[in-house]
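re: ur question from earlier - yeah i can do the single chain one, its not a big deal. heres the input i used so u can compare w yours
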Amino acid sequence: MADVQAAKRYAQAAFQIATATPGASLDQWRAELREIAEVLSDSAASGLLADRKVPVASRVAMVERMLDLSPLALNLARLLVSKGRSQDARAVSDAFNRMADDYEGIAHASVTTAVELTPEQLSAIEQQLSSSLGKRVRAVGAVDPAIIGGLVVRVGDKLVDGSVRTRLKRLRRELEGVR
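and the output i got, formated as tokens:
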């Protein structure tokens, strides 16, 4: 289980380096952190890299052989391994991506509908959300036939429920209150 707070601190440090280093790009850091996460958290070697019975020098040497990264990103990978945080690499990458998205003005939306949306419909929803939020929105569609019709949009911690199911529930509560 990843230590979310520790992962956030490592991500903040990486983000500060990425934004302060001339010539560094957030996209490059995103890619390198994704590669670090794949090796340290998701690969077949992840168990060995997290095993404290294996000497730290051996684990760090393995990471250096497995990863071809910029010196600063490689230092982060070494640090995660040497501090016993290799299993937190995926959480570090995710936290960094959230910070980079916020920095670049990108919001992520989940759009749930009763039927599958076409790419054109999803793009139109993205454009509408972008104009109303003042950010670039990347939307992901999901299907839930139980909402009957309409849509449910979640952007961060905001939820807009325009589903028929919710409207019917509201109408039912109103009618029950009239009795």
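The first helix runs from residue 4 to 20. not sure if urs matches, ping me
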